[in-house]
Design the sequence.
């Protein structure tokens, strides 16, 4: 049973990493993965459990999705994502990595002016990426 779960967790993580530019809700993941025929799909409750575990392990980020009550999930690509801040585009869902040095600078500055220590790995800045602001890529 434990092995079975590990396998499904890997499958899920691989899927999210392959689509690292986007975030998906559990329903969307179920739909996409079954379209791709990615092996045996876990049930919805298992999927939630696996996803929570991936979030705990810091491999996946959970976002509140605008305009819905559900959450969307997105994988962190790269091994050092706990050492810098991230920015998320609310239009296209892209996750951008802020440089390690700039992240530290920013957090040090915040700490010095407000005496507040920001939790780096939990913090995501929301906004619009350059493509969405200037590119007019509407299709
Ligand atoms: Zn990162
Ligand atoms: Zn964008």
Sequence:
């Amino acid at each position: 049973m434990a092995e079975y779960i590990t396998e499904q967790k890997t499958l899920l993580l691989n899927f999210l990493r392959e689509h690292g530019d986007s975030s998906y809700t559990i329903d969307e993941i179920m739909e996409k993965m079954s379209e791709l025929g990615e092996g045996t799909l876990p049930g919805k409750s298992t999927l939630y459990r696996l996803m929570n575990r991936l979030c705990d392990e810091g491999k996946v980020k959970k976002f509140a999705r605008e305009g819905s009550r559900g959450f969307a999930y997105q994988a962190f690509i790269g091994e050092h994502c706990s050492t810098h801040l991230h920015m998320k585009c609310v239009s296209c869902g892209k996750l951008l990595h802020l440089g390690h040095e700039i992240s530290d600078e920013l957090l040090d500055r915040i700490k010095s002016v407000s005496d507040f220590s920001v939790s780096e790995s939990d913090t995501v800045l929301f906004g619009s990426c350059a493509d969405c602001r200037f590119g007019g890529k509407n299709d």
About this structure: The helical segments are 2-18, 26-36, 44-56, 100-114, 130-135. Residues 31 and 90 are 22 Å apart (CA to CA). Residues 89, 91-92, 94, 128-129, 131-132 surround zinc ion (ligand 2) (CB under 6 Å). The chain has a mean pLDDT of 84.
